[in-house]
Amino acid sequence: MVDQLIYAVLGAKGSWSHAAAHSKYPTGQRLGCSDFEQVANSLKSGRADIAIFPVQNSTTGPIAGVFELLASHDFVQTDEIVLPIEHCLIGSPNLGVSEATISRIFSHPQGFLQCMQFLIQTYPNAAQIPETDTATAVQRVIDEGLSMQLAIGSTFAAGLYGGKIIKADIHDQADNTTRFVCMVRR
What we know:
Number of strands: 11
CATH topology of the largest domain: D-Maltodextrin-Binding Protein, domain 2
CATH class of the largest domain: Alpha Beta
Number of domains: 2
């Protein structure tokens, strides 16, 4: 019997890194990590067979610190994944949402950057609260169940955590994609 492939990714179930890895390795086992250094260390230590890193977004450019991190490790790229990033505004399922009452929006910093024009035009006074990844943001909004807060995330995360999609396709560029690299130990 062949062991199941374990892939290390940034974030909770439903993160964009998880979505990318799942698209390439649908039967693999996710090892969620809290930061990119932990993803690299999971691969280096052998806890993961492969590590998936986002390296470039078509809207915002290189993902901060990832190229430098990869250069500091003895990893080999085996493949890449280009994933369409289609951000949604997600809220708690049983609460009515009014644009005027939204005071906080949670997301990974990349989510805020990729949806900047939408946020400025629609929620200029809402505090932007950073999270480790977009799925953690969605999970937090659903768990807290408050009508004055929303999360930026994917339909994948909304489905996993039972969130209500308030508005789809809020990213500033219609062809928003992120390139992920698949790395293994040398």
